[in-house]
Amino acid sequence: MTDYRIAPSILSADFAQLGEEVRRVLRAGADFVHFDVMDNHYVPNLTVGPLVCEAIRPHARVGGAADGAPAVIDVHLMVSPVDRIVPDFARAGANIISFHPEASDHIDRTLSLIRDQGCKAGLVFNPATPLHYLDHVMDRLDLILIMSVNPGFGGQSFIPEALHKIRLVRQRIDAYRAETGRDILLEVDGGVKADNIAAIARAGADTFVAGSAIFGKRDADGGYLGAVTALRSALATA
Ligand code: DX5
Ligand code: ZN
Question: From ligand 1's centre to the CA of 228, what distance in Å?
Fold first, then answer.
């Protein structure tokens, strides 16, 4: 059985109380903290950088418990250039660092840089970005992130073509695993909700970013626990 991971995107969190928001979603059973970095250059929006990553690091613990082991901070860089900022995020406590191939002049070098800094490395594909960027770097990847919206904003609708792309990536990962024994996570980001997450899982994804689907339930019955539970119950039917 596939081991599914839920990664709330803090883009939709209440930034005035970010530490508490991080603890809340982890208490609700989230696995990763998805950290969206936007630079108003590669994408038309501006968010947060290494300082904020460092600030949430002590709050990101498994189960949201003060004595929990460190939970994974999953940094999604939507910035160009990429390399300059990678060591800063490694120092700030990032565990996974992913970037868009179009944003780096030397993709192989950036992937090596991320691992040299002690982090896991990921490559992110926009809806229209072809998968050929995977051709010669599978051994350098720990995660492949398929965007199911155009990057820049939370709360957009899932682009159905992403399902087709996820199936193609799943084939590549399975073939690579059969050959090498090493696994690569397949993450999906954008418009993931309780009513489409099972179909996304059936297409082959194992890691699910959810921003508005979780943080949008701040004041709803059941709150974040209800939101994460709804996603997990839907996954159980996949
Ligand atoms: C979009 C970001 C996403 C976003 C997802 O550029 O990369 O992580 O926060 O938000 P939802 O789940 O609301 O689409
Ligand atoms: Zn993201």
Answer: 16
Name the nearest CA neighbour of 73 among 10, 164, 160.
Answer: 10
What are the structure tokens assigned to 185, written together? Answer: 């996570």
- Rounded Cα–Cα distance for residues 223 and 134 (Å): 38
Closest atom of ligand 1 to CA, residue 216: 13
Closest approach atom of ligand 1 to CA 214: 12
Centroid of ligand 2 to alpha carbon of 2 (angstroms): 22
Q: Each residue of 163-177: pLDDT tens digit?
A: 999 999 999 999 999
> Which string of b and e fits 215-230 if b means at least 16 CB within 10 Å?
bebeeeeeebeebbeb
Residue 51: exposure state from Cβ atoms within 10 A (0-12, 13-18, ≥19):
exposed
Q: CB within 6 Å of ligand 1 — which residues?
A: 9, 11-12, 34, 36, 76, 149, 151-152, 154-156, 189-192, 209-213
To the question of pTM greater than 0.90 for the whole model, the response is yes
- The alpha carbon of 36 and the centre of ligand 1 are apart by a number of angstroms equal to 8
Ligand nearest to the CA of 214: 1
CB-count exposure of residue 175 (10 Å: 0-12, 13-18, 19+): exposed
CB count within 10 Å of CB 75 equals 27
- Confidence (pLDDT) at 222: 94
Kindly report, residue by residue over 10-68, the tens digit of the pLDDT: 999 999 999 999 999 999 999 999 999 999 999 999 999 999 999 999 999 999 999 99
